[in-house]
């Protein structure tokens, strides 16, 4: 960052060596405070007062600068209770989130005219105060309830704010210019009132208007200063026009007289920031820190910009934008309009530049330049980053003081002229950066240096530290002076009572270190009475060491007081002659000795760059040459300064200090300050009449010459005719206006000639229709214009205007002026929306009175047409029309503001390209809309920018869609607004809609071109001033489809009529018929008759024509079809003449008999069904008996299976001792619980925003996080979303999970919200059926409950239930894998789910394969390692790979194992070599349309074979587990694609059309299979599986439902909460409470976990394992219900398996609920403490910003509905929740709001 300061004037300082006797080290004034941080420093404007003011964090200090920086007063300004999200006044009621906040000083300025100190802090939205300069404790102005425009400074300590107080010019009021960085929607630059109410506010136009996103530009201001008639701002911001969007430095300028920023121009600089001095701009630049800059050094540079060159660059930019469309030939667009303002550079007349140098309302603004102003660095450093700069200029020698980040002050000489020299480095405060407020006092003798907690006052020249010539030369300080003084012996006496030392700048010290020896000369005096004393003149030798040699034309001279004598050089000095006796001072009587000071003036006044008068560097201007005391003269033609008396050619301007007779040869060194100018004056220019001629200055001698016909203004010596001493009578050309109200007050402009020479000439002599008209002096123009204000006429009258000039004649106007009394009679319409925009017609008489612009845009004598403005309330409003200073009120009638129209739905969402389809727009208050329109905007699909913000009342035009886009060219060519077909080409038109009722508007779609098919379509409904986006009110995005095509009825010969048989349907063929239209929208006609459309498909239209052919006199009826704007004529229709056949009687009898038979059959079926129902109950009991017998018969078998399983599980348990249970970490667990089915959850993603906007968006998201802390806002937000029709159940679950993540760090608050929402849910279901509550996830609170339980029970899962569940999962997987599993159908021999039971008897045997471990899994040794693994010979190759991976990598979690598709199975068969095995290859068995997957049996792999899992080639590496990968590296290659071939593994699937392709098919797709009769052998398998797993199921249920260990606190807390809710709502039914608890814990949490072990473990699941778990989960759910499940013969076998166990499990559940009820209640404090600990433990596991960003997308989608809900709530209004949401929208999306 750059820092800078400036001096106000250029000082001349001439240095002459002197000798001083003593010097000593000194300490400098200092003020320090360690309890704060200094931030700003200013000085009192009066140097005699010397007060210093320091602004600091939470403090203000007033120091005495003349008394060692002594602390005079201190004022505490913070900390205060504040929040960035709250508007002042900040109270606990309206800002509950307020906290103690430090008040950083953002602005510290002095108003020198009012003698006031202006202070602005970072709290209370950056409001300011005025304080007394004499006492900072005396607050002169402060506001407790500021308005929006009174927020001055940035409310963020890290965001910059600069200011500048500008004094009055020509009587204007004092104002303050402010530049502030982005924190909200406040303008970056504005002009603030300091002397008018409201203080510190700005007018709407007194600001830099930014139409784009403020956050994208991200201004960082450095300084502001004024020069001449301009104000300058220096800042750096993001250049959004460039592709890199890097930050660039800019200098901006605006005229002081420009109150509307019409003259604003900014140009880029090559670096960042600046300070200023005189005519040059000194800038300190630092390297840009970015991802590509890894330079660890703090590199900085010093650059110099001439301010005149900056002004020329800005003027050039303005001129290009005014008159050349901003373009330069060969360079393209150089000047342009910035900040996305809808304007462009113009091609105005050339005289615009002179007429409007500071712009006007018709000139383009704000302007910017693409061409930067460049400057090379004159000095750079890498030691530390420069942080401050101050500059002093003395006699063309500039000294820059540079502060850096390490607390060092660098003194740099001559930076302006490029000859830079660092002559001193002083450490102010080690490792403490020097503040940018580096100030020189008004005298330039001292500099104030401020660090974080120290202020020091140091002299600019520290001469006291150098005592000799060598020390002086080594210091090389430009400020050093060495004094030479001559004196007589014994006694010193200063000449004229003061020092006579001259000053010489430091560069002379390079060549000269003079030392003048002390000497004394005694003049002998001979006294005589009455005779003056005489002195004998003689030479005096002066010894001067180091005296340099003189150049040509140079010499020395000696001064004896005021007498100068020439000096001649000697070997060791100079020799001077004594003056004449007449030049000596008078000698008193009796004195014998007179002492006089002799002073040797070394006339080598040249610096390092100037050696003579001819130096072009020093004397580029004339004034410095001729004003020197050394007799230099100026040659105009050669443009040089010379010591010669006359120039070789041209005019010589002689030195003003010496006579022309003197010839001096002294060198000249003074700098030039101004140019000598010559004035040429033409009397005739601009003086076309006598009065103007006589106003010319008398020195120009202009006179009015000639007769009446040929008079003109000429120079008096040029007048050959008569000189007129009096002017002719005034002539009035026209009046404006020509009417006004009888009350007067109309400002009338009288234009003409000879209307006086000054306003006093026509004062009190102007009348209009005989009524005096008061002249307005400030608007008077000499001779040509009089502006006056009419007085009251008392009645209606007309007459001429008259002007009498003092000393002249009387002039009358040709036009007449009428005093009129306008009358209002009626208005239409009498109501309209409060948003405004309605066209209003006011009728009456004589309404065209006064200036039309003062009344309305469209005015006639009988009516006025205008547009209503918005109102902040509904109701009745009076009608008032102002005619200048008069008003007229409409009596008896009022205008009624109604609620704004609102659109809720719009459908359909498609249209053909030809348009004309009616869009039904539904809503409220639609009948107040006068001109509803529909607008369609087409944009290219690739470059369409993100949807722009919209205001609450939809005031933004669709053009805002293009804002912020970098590629303007192609976008402008592509993007267009679609017109009506009736509009001429190139016009921007809209389709007009029709108001059907207060709730319905019908809008025909406009026709578009074919490009709409590939374009992005945006549709807006324009309801007067309100705009609605179709995407927010429609169910889906609007799109255009291809036009339909209809073929003629008689396709063979369209010229022939189509013969229609009466009673039949007409069928029309075509294409794309139903893409964008419904059948009821199609209109078909045969002549005048309607053909009713019955069916509309993609290719056919069926319509029923009239029964009789419509009568046509001349020809056959034409068949026409209208589809929107399309009209199809499909040929003529001819009805056949034969009579329509009747329905035969025999057929009618047959139909009756058939109906009777059908009724009899139905009756028989009913009777049979009743008999079957009774039989079903008997069968059920029989089945139960059979199951018991079967269970007994397989018990022994189960014992054996269980024993084998336990052996396997013991082996697995031993493995777990080393590797442990593969629990997921909390982040993965939360991700799978919160966002199931999402490919990339917000917990894994980074914030997806451009890097340039990241900081702004993150700030907005932090504000959103703070807003979510408002309980009222959060509940309103959730309830508002839930009532939206488009807010689907999936959206509800997603939003709930996003809220869970966003509030994860505040689980106590999250729980409080959950309780509030649960109470609302209970109230909702109590009115319906309370037993249904929490049964499904249909609301946000239900998903919130699931997430809350998941968070609170994560530890319980890991520590208690996790082990039992994992053992059950492993047991299921082991048992299933023991038997065959069909890879295609997913059916298994061993399962609990009868739908997944493999019924066929498949022969198989177990094989033990020796697996060669891959490199990644091997121990690292050189010896090959093999591991035995068990598989089945009927397994497919993919199944074999899965089992091998499972057994060889059993100590590694699933996510750490190689992917199955990344490995090949290689059979190493000894001599046969290595063979790659695959599921499909050329050896696969194909039978008809069936292909069998390859198994180990197919390849005849023996028991004990050696196999290896080898990596697959990268080019074949696919991660789609649904693909069966073919083998490579063997002759058995793929067949390629075979159309129609179906795969099978163990059994062929049924012949259904849609079957799963492999074993990973969806359970949901297969769950619909009906239960079939199961033979006993299959029941034996199910019971065997059930008995084997029984112990593991029991262990899991016991772990979940046991109360022997402490019940999780969350379960107890929530069950108590449900009991309280039941008690509160008078629910006493224990079954209802039991259902609530079951739905909240087992259903919402445990069932979810049981069905998805991958939610808690890092394991691989499969469909056949999931099928078993689903049966166990259903059993658990059945156990938690109270109702008895009635089982019958057709009941699922899954339920029958555990029919005997469920009663036992139910007892466990009831006991579990009862024990929880009897335990001690959990207090809120205990729960909050536990939740706080959870928040701390898992704080680093969740990414809140991404969740907040996703959450904002829903806020954005339902933005208007949320804002409306907040505005309708009075409490929300008091808390300003809507305003805070608008601030967030402005930050995150730059949504335009009503802030």
Topology of helices and strands:
Elements: E1 30-32, E2 38-43, E3 51-56, E4 59-64, E5 70-76, E6 80-82, E7 99-101, E8 105-111, E9 116-121, E10 128-132, E11 139-141, E12 161-166, E13 175-180, E14 189-193, H1 214-217, E15 220-227, E16 230-238, E17 247-255, E18 265-269, E19 275-277, E20 280-286, E21 300-306, H2 307-323, E22 327-328, E23 332-333, E24 335-337, H3 352-355, E25 367-369, E26 377-381, E27 386-394, E28 397-404, E29 408-413, E30 421-427, E31 439-440, E32 446-450, E33 454-459, H4 469-475, E34 515-516, E35 539-545, E36 556-560, E37 563-569, E38 573-577, E39 598-601, H5 623-626, E40 633-635, E41 640-642, E42 652-653, H6 690-694, E43 702-705, E44 712-715, E45 723-724, E46 731-736, E47 739-741, E48 747-753, E49 766-768, E50 771-775, E51 785-790, E52 797-804, E53 810-820, E54 823-828, E55 831-833, E56 839-845, H7 852-855, E57 858-859, E58 863-867, E59 875-877, E60 880-883, E61 886-889, E62 895-898, E63 902-907, E64 910-912, E65 918-924, E66 932-939, H8 968-974, E67 976-978, E68 991-992, E69 994-997, E70 1000-1004, E71 1016-1023, E72 1026-1029, ...
Helix pairs in contact: 10-22, 11-22, 13-29, 13-32, 14-30, 15-17, 15-29, 16-17, 17-24, 18-22, 18-25, 23-24, 24-25, 25-27
Protein name: Plexin-B1
GO molecular function: semaphorin receptor activity
Domain Sema: 10-460
């Amino acid at each position: 960052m750059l820092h800078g300061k400036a001096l106000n004037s250029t000082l001349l300082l001439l240095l002459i060596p002197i000798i001083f006797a003593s010097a000593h080290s000194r300490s400098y004034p200092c003020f320090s405070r360690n309890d704060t941080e200094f931030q700003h420093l200013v000085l009192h404007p009066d140097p005699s007062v010397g007060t210093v003011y320091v602004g600091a964090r939470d403090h203000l200090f007033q120091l005495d600068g003349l008394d060692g920086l002594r602390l005079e007063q201190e004022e505490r300004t913070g900390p205060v209770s504040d929040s960035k999200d709250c508007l002042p006044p900040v109270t606990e009621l309206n800002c509950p989130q307020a906290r103690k906040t430090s008040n950083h000083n953002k602005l510290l300025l002095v108003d020198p005219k009012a003698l006031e100190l202006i202070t602005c802090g970072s709290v209370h939205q950056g409001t300011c105060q005025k304080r007394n300069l004499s006492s900072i404790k005396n607050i002169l102005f402060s506001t407790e309830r500021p308005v929006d425009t009174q927020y001055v400074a940035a409310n963020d300590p890290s965001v910059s704010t600069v200011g500048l107080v500008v004094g009055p010019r020509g009587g204007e009021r004092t104002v303050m210019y402010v530049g502030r960085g982005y924190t909200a929607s406040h303008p970056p630059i504005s002009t603030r009132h300091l002397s008018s109410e409201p203080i510190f506010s700005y007018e709407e136009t007194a600001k830099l208007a930014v139409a784009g996103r403020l956050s994208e530009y991200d201004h960082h201001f450095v300084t502001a200063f004024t020069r001449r008639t301009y104000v300058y701002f220096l800042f750096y911001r993001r250049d959004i026009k460039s592709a890199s969007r890097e930050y660039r430095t800019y200098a901006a300028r605006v005229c002081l007289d420009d109150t509307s920023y019409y003259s604003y121009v900014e140009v880029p600089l090559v670096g960042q920031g600046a300070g200023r001095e005189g005519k040059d701009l000194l800038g300190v630049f630092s390297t840009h820190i970015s991802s590509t800059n890894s330079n660890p050094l703090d590199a900085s540079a010093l650059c110099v910009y001439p301010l005149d060159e900056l002004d020329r660059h800005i003027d050039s930019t303005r001129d290009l934008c005014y008159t050349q469309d901003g373009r330069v030939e060969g360079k393209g667009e150089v000047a342009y309009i910035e900040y996305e303002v809808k304007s462009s550079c113009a091609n105005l007349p050339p005289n615009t530049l002179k007429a409007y140098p500071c712009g006007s309302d018709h000139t383009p603004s704000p302007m910017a330049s693409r061409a930067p102003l460049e400057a090379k660095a004159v000095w750079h450093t890498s030691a530390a980053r420069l942080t401050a700069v101050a500059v002093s200029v003395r006699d063309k020698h500039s000294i820059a003081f540079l502060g850096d980040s390490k607390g060092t002050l660098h003194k740099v000489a001559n930076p302006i002229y490029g000859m830079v020299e660092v002559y001193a480095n002083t450490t102010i405060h080690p490792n403490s950066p020097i503040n940018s407020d580096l100030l020189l006092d008004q005298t330039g003798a001292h500099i104030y240096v401020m660090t974080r907690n120290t202020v020091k006052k140091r002299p600019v020249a520290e001469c006291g530290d150098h005592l000799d010539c060598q020390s002086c030369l080594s210091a090389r300080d430009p400020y050093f002076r060495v004094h030479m003084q001559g004196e007589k012996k014994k006694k010193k006496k200063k000449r004229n009572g003061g020092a006579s030392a001259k000053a010489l700048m430091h560069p002379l010290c390079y060549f000269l270190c003079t030392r003048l020896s002390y000497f004394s000369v005694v003049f002998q005096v001979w006294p005589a009475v009455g005779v003056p004393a005489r002195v004998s003149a003689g030479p005096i030798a002066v010894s001067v060491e180091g005296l340099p040699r003189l150049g040509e034309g140079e010499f020395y001279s000696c001064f004896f007081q005021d007498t100068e004598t020439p000096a001649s050089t000697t070997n060791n000095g100079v020799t001077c002659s004594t003056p004449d006796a007449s030049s000596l001072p008078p000698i008193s009587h009796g004195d014998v000795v007179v002492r006089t000071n002799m002073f040797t003036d070394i006339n080598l006044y040249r610096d390092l760059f100037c050696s003579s008068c001819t130096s072009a560097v020093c004397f580029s201007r004339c004034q410095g040459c001729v004003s020197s005391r050394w007799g230099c003269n100026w040659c105009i033609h050669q443009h040089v300064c010379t010591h010669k008396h006359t120039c070789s050619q041209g005019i010589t301007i002689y030195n003003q200090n010496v006579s022309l007779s003197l010839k001096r040869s002294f060198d000249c060194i003074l700098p030039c300050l101004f140019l000598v100018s010559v004035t040429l004056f033409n009397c005739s220019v601009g003086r076309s009449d006598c009065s103007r001629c006589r106003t010319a200055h008398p020195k120009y001698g202009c006179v009015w010459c000639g007769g009446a016909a040929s008079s003109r203004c000429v120079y008096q010596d040029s007048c050959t005719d008569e000189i007129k001493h009096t002017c002719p009578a005034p002539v009035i050309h026209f009046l404006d206006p020509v009417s006004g109200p009888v009350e007067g007050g109309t400002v009338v402009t009288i234009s003409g000639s000879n209307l006086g020479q000054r306003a006093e000439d026509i004062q009190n002599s102007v009348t209009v229709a005989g009524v005096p008209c008061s002249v307005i002096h400030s608007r008077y123009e000499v001779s040509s214009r009089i502006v006056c204000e009419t007085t009251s006429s008392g009645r209606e009258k007309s007459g001429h205007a008259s002007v009498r000039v003092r000393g002249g004649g009387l002039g009358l106007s040709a036009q007449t002026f009428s005093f009129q009394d306008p009358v209002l009679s009626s208005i239409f319409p009498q109501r309209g929306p409060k948003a405004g925009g309605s066209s209003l017609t006011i009728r009456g008489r004589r309404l065209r009175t006064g200036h039309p612009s003062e009344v309305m845009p469209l005015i006639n004598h009988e009516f006025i047409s205008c547009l209503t403005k918005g109102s902040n309330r509904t109701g009745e409003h009076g009608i008032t029309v102002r005619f200048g200073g008069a008003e007229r009120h409409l009596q008896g009638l009022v205008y009624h503001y109604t609620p704004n129209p609102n659109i809720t739905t719009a459908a359909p969402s498609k249209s053909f390209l030809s348009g004309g389809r009616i869009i039904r727009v539904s809503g409220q208050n639609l009948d107040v809309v006068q001109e509803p329109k529909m607008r369609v905007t087409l944009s290219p699909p690739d470059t369409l920018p993100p949807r722009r913000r919209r205001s609450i009342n939809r005031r933004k035009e669709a053009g805002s869609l293009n804002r912020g886009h970098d590629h303007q060219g192609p976008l402008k060519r592509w993007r267009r607004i679609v017109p009506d077909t009736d509009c001429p080409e190139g016009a921007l038109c809209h389709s007009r809609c029709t108001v059907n009722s207060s709730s319905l508007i019908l809008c025909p779609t406009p026709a578009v071109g074919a490009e709409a098919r590939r374009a992005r379509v945006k549709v807006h409904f324009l309801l007067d001033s309100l705009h609605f986006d179709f995407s927010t009110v429609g169910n889906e995005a609007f799109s255009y489809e291809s036009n339909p095509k209809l073929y003629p009825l008689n396709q063979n010969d369209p010229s022939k009529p189509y013969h229609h048989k009466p009673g039949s349907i007409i069928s029309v063929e075509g294409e794309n018929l139903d893409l964008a239209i419904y059948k009821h929208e199609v209109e078909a006609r045969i002549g005048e008759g309607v053909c009713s459309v019955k069916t509309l498909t993609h290719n056919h239209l069926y319509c029923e024509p009239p029964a009789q052919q419509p009568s046509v006199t001349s020809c056959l009826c034409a068949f026409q079809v209208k589809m929107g704007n399309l009209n199809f004529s499909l040929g003529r229709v001819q009805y056949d003449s034969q009579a329509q056949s009747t329905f035969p009687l025999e057929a009618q009898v047959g139909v009756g008999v058939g109906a009777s038979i059908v009724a009899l059959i139905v009756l028989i079926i009913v009777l049979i069904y009743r008999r079957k129902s009774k039989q079903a109950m008997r069968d059920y009991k029989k089945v139960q008996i059979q199951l018991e017998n079967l269970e007994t018969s397989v018990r022994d078998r189960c014992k054996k299976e269980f024993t084998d399983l336990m052996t396997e599980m013991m082996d697995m348990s031993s493995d777990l001792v080393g590797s442990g249970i593969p629990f997921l970490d909390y982040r993965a667990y939360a991700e799978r619980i919160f966002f199931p089915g999402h490919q990339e959850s917000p917990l894994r993603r980074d914030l997806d925003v451009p890097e340039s906007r990241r900081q702004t968006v993150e700030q907005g998201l932090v504000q959103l996080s703070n807003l979510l802390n408002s309980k009222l806002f959060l509940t309103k937000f959730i309830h508002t979303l839930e009532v939206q029709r488009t807010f689907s159940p999936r959206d509800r679950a997603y939003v709930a999970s996003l809220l869970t993540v966003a509030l994860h760090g505040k689980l106590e608050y999250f729980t409080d919200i959950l309780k509030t929402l649960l109470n609302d849910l209970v109230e909702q279901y109590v009115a319906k059926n309370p037993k249904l509550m929490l049964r499904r996830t249909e609301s946000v609170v239900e998903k919130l409950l699931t997430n809350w339980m998941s968070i609170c029970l994560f530890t319980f899962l890991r520590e208690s239930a996790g082990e039992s569940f994992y053992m059950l999962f492993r047991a299921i997987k082991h048992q299933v894998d023991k038997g065959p599993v069909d890879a295609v159908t997913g059916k298994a021999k061993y399962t609990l789910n009868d739908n997944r039971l493999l019924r066929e008897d498949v022969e198989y045997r177990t094989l033990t394969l020796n697996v060669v471990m891959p490199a990644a899994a091997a121990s690292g040794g050189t010896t090959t390692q093999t591991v035995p693994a068990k598989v089945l010979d009927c397994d497919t190759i993919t199944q074999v790979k899965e089992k091998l991976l499972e057994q060889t990598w059993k100590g590694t979690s699933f996510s750490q194992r190689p992917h199955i598709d990344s490995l090949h199975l290689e059979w190493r068969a000894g001599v046969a070599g290595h063979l790659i095995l695959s599921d499909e290859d050329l050896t696969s068995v194909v039978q008809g349309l069936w292909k069998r997957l390859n198994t180990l049996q197919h390849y005849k792999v023996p028991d004990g074979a050696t196999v290896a899992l080898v990596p697959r080639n990268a080019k074949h590496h696919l991660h789609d587990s649904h693909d069966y990968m073919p083998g490579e590296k063997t002759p058995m290659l793929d067949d390629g694609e075979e159309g129609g071939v179906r795969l099978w593994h163990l059994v062929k699937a049924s012949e259904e059309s849609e079957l799963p392709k492999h074993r990973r098919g969806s359970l949901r797709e297969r769950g619909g299979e009906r239960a079939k009769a199961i033979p006993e052998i299959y029941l034996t398998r199910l019971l065997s599986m059930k008995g084997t797993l029984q112990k593991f199921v029991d262990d899991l249920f016991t772990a979940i439902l046991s109360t022997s260990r402490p019940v999780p606190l969350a379960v107890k807390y929530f069950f108590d909460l449900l009991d309280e809710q039941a008690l509160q709502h008078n629910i006493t039914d224990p079954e209802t409470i039991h259902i609530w608890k079951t739905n909240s814990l087992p259903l919402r949490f445990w069932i979810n976990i049981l069905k998805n072990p991958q939610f808690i473990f890092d394991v691989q699941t499969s469909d056949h394992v999931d099928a078993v778990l689903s049966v166990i989960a259903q059993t658990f759910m059945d156990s938690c219900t109270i109702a008895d499940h009635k089982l019958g013969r057709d009941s699922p076998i899954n339920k029958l398996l555990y029919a005997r166990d469920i009663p036992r499990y139910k007892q466990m559940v009831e006991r579990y609920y009862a024990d929880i009820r009897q335990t001690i209640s959990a207090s809120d404090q205990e729960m909050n403490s536990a939740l706080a600990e959870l928040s701390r433990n898992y704080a680093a596991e969740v990414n809140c910003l991404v969740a907040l960003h996703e959450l904002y997308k829903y806020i954005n989608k339902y933005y208007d509905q949320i804002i409306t809900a907040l505005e309708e709530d009075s409490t929300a209004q008091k808390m300003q929740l809507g305003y805070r949401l608008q601030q967030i929208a402005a930050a995150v999306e730059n949504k335009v709001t009503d802030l």
